């Protein structure tokens, strides 16, 4: 009865909460991660720290799933003191120990109480002592019988430990407490052993490296079972943090590079894009049912459990019997467990840059399944010219193809043809990755349509994106000269500088949707023109001389033309009479919303280009703009000042909606 009483007291929910108003997080882990640094010097934090010290066992570890912020009764405090010398339930599962160490570090940064430092160091010693000779870690230490002895990646247990040890070994400032040189050296050796264990546990499927399982046998490294519904399997979730840890290793070995590349290929192979999870909630917001429903071009997800030989997702109830779909298991496990995850998206997002940095190139044998091509003028990449990289892209690929361009001035015309869709053109830096050419109307000399042949970069392929680049037409003020021409749909241009004079940016294409974010665009006359629907967000639009910013040719019946939101319109000193736009075609649509308009903007705002019919058919609009150039009462009578209700229709979802949902957020 006495022992039962202790257990009840130890794991009961607190009788009352004492978190002050500035810290209202319900979960212990949220308090650690989300509180402001200064909060850890407060009286409330000190009070919680006393609880954390009480829960820590003398061996250095903590039990799991304890809401440390809950106020303790005198009887609970007494019982905690009595069991400090025991080692039962000390673990790293569910973030235990590593999160309490972080709390103590944040406390010590604000309050130099030596007990906090000692607590952290005891926790670190506990982690080092718990490591197996082969480099792995069990879920509980001292060892607890059962599956708890397996090398445990489940719920990121081992990776949480290794992240702590890596910070110590690298002598970073992440933790406020600096261990001795001896402990730093021990941490370095422990981390290296852990990496060796990770490499040895990566599962080979028919001789090919894939990913990791939630648990591996501590002796044989083979995949291992845990609870009845957690059968040995390849894990879409747990493998993610493992790969991110490997990618964080400076100067990775050849073995690490191979491990990462193999895991990325497995992630690409096993992603699911035709299902979405639907959750049914009750009035209290609790999940009462989960269903997987068919979807078209859904965001990628991965199964938590995949068959070791076929990669086929499977699901288990507490009977341990594999089922092929989530609806074949009972509600308790279906709704109370995470069966799918989108975590590997972070790996796939970071991999192109990591691969370039660590020398992963596109070999000849890999061209048919190419996903990354590097361009570098010094010969360190796959090609020295961007157009050559485009030629190496597969036609109509199923997956995205990234062309990573290292810093340099690339003096060339580049064309992304219609058959090279799904291309990502990514520069090393906006300031130093420059694509430039000097074609203009007169130089091309191909007749009245010569303008459309002048572009430095021409994008015809759909689902294109570009970032971290400068795109320039260097011909100067010599007439029409396009820097960037986009005729494909679902094009996203972010963090780019687009430079030219007349006709800098041409946007066209039947039913085309295009998105510009955080860009700098400059020119003289009609320097943003065309018939596409295009949204510009957080961009700087710079006029070099007095003329016209836009010349839309929006087709009749199209809901939106050019829309500028939260943009800033600036100008050279000599440019003191700038129109917001004029209609290249009479159904032109252009809107400026929440923009800052400089004094260069003419009071009338818009000009009809000697087209009286345009005054009847164009839709030129503004809403909630600011700056000296915003003079709504002086605008031409045929323009519009939107109401809030009308402006609300100009959402990114409405403007850029397409058959591919949310393409602009990828």
Automatic annotation (TrEMBL):
What is catalyzed by this enzyme?
[(1->4)-alpha-D-galacturonosyl methyl ester](n) + n H2O = [(1->4)-alpha-D-galacturonosyl](n) + n methanol + n H(+)
PROSITE patterns listed in its UniProt record? PECTINESTERASE_1, PECTINESTERASE_2
Source organism superkingdom: Bacteria
Recall the GO molecular function terms of this protein's record. Answer: lyase activity; pectinesterase activity
Pathway of action: Glycan metabolism; pectin degradation; 2-dehydro-3-deoxy-D-gluconate from pectin: step 1/5
Q: Any idea which UniProt keywords this protein has? A: Aspartyl esterase, Hydrolase, Lyase, Signal
Q: Which residues form the Pectinesterase catalytic domain?
A: 373-657
The signal peptide here is 1-21
Q: Which residue positions are annotated as catalytic?
A: 526
Give the enzyme class. Answer: hydrolase
Q: According to the UniProt entry, what is the EC number of this protein?
A: 3.1.1.11
One of the record's GO cellular component terms: cell outer membrane
Family annotation (InterPro entries): Pectate_lyase, Pectin_lyas_fold, Pectin_lyase_fold/virulence, Pectinesterase_Asp_AS, Pectinesterase_cat, Pectinesterase_Tyr_AS
**Pfam families reported in the protein's UniProt record:** Pec_lyase, Pectinesterase
Which BP terms in the Gene Ontology apply to this protein? cell wall modification; pectin catabolic process
The UniProt entry's sequence similarity note says: Belongs to the pectinesterase family.
Q: What is the official name of this protein in its record?
A: Pectinesterase
The scientific name of the source species is: Flavobacterium johnsoniae (strain ATCC 17061 / DSM 2064 / JCM 8514 / BCRC 14874 / CCUG 350202 / NBRC 14942 / NCIMB 11054 / UW101) (Cytophaga johnsonae)
Organism lineage reads as: Bacteria, Pseudomonadati, Bacteroidota, Flavobacteriia, Flavobacteriales
């Amino acid at each position: 009865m006495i022992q039962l009483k202790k257990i009840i007291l130890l794991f009961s929910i607190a009788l009352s909460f004492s978190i002050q108003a500035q810290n209202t997080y319900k979960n212990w882990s949220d308090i650690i991660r989300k509180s402001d640094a200064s909060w850890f010097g407060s009286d409330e934090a000190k009070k919680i720290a006393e609880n954390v010290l009480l829960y820590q066992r003398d061996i250095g570890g903590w039990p799991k799933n304890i809401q440390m912020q809950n106020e303790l009764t005198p009887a609970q405090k007494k019982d905690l003191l009595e069991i400090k010398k025991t080692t039962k339930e000390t673990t790293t599962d569910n973030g235990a120990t590593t999160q309490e160490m972080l709390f103590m570090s944040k406390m010590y940064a604000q309050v130099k109480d030596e007990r906090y430092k000692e607590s952290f160091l005891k926790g670190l010693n506990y982690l080092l002592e718990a490591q197996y000779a082969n480099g792995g870690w069990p879920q509980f230490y001292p060892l607890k019988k059962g599956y708890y002895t397996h090398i445990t990646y489940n719920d990121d247990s081992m990776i949480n430990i290794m992240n702590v040890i890596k910070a110590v070994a690298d002598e970073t400032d992440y933790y406020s407490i600096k261990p001795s040189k001896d402990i730093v050296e021990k941490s370095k050796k422990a981390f290296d052993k852990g990496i060796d264990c990770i490499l040895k546990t990566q599962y080979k499927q028919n001789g090919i490296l894939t990913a990791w399982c939630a648990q591996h046998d501590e002796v044989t490294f083979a995949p291992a079972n845990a609870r009845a519904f957690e059968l040995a399997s390849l894990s879409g979730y747990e493998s993610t943090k493992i790969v991110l840890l490997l990618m964080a290793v400076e100067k990775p070995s050849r073995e690490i590079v191979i491990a990462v590349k193999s895991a990325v290929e497995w992630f690409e192979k096993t992603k699911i894009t035709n299902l979405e999870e639907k959750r049914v909630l009750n009035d209290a917001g609790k999940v009462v049912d989960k269903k997987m429903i068919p979807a078209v071009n859904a965001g990628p997800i991965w199964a938590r459990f995949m068959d070791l030989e076929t990669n086929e997702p499977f699901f288990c109830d507490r009977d341990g019997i594999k089922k092929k779909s989530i609806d074949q298991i009972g509600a308790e496990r279906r709704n109370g467990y995470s069966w799918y995850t989108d975590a590997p998206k972070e790996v796939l997002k970071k991999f192109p840059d990591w691969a370039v940095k660590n020398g992963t190139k596109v070999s000849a044998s890999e061209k048919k399944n190419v996903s990354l091509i590097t361009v570098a003028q010094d010969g360190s990449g796959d090609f020295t010219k961007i157009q050559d990289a485009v030629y190496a892209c597969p036609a109509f690929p199923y997956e995205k193809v990234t062309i990573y361009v290292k810093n340099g001035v690339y003096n060339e015309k580049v064309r992304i043809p219609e058959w090279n869709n799904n291309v990502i053109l990514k520069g090393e830096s906006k300031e130093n990755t420059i694509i430039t050419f000097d074609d203009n109307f007169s130089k091309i000399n191909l007749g009245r349509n010569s303008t459309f042949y002048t572009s430095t970069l021409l994008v015809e392929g759909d689902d294109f994106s570009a970032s971290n680049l400068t795109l320039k037409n260097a011909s100067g003020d010599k007439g029409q000269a396009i820097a960037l021409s986009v005729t494909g749909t679902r094009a996203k241009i972010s963090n780019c500088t687009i430079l030219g004079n007349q006709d800098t940016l041409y946007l066209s294409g039947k039913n085309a949707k295009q998105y510009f974010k955080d860009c700098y665009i400059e020119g003289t006359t009609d320097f943003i023109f065309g018939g596409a629907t295009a949204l510009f967000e957080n961009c700087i639009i710079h006029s070099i001389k007095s003329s016209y910013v836009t010349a839309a040719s929006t087709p009749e019946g199209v809901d939106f033309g050019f829309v500028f939101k939260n943009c800033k319109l600036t100008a050279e000193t000599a440019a003191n009479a700038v129109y917001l736009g004029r209609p290249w075609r009479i159904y032109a649509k252009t809107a400026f919303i929440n923009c800052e308009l400089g004094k260069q903007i003419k009071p009338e705002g818009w000009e009809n280009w000697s087209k009286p019919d345009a005054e009847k058919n164009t839709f030129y609009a503004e809403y909630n703009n600011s700056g000296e150039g915003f003079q709504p009462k002086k605008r031409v009578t045929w323009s519009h000042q939107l109401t809030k209700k009308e402006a609300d229709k100009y959402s990114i979802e409405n403007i850029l909606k397409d058959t591919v949902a949310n393409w602009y957020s990828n």
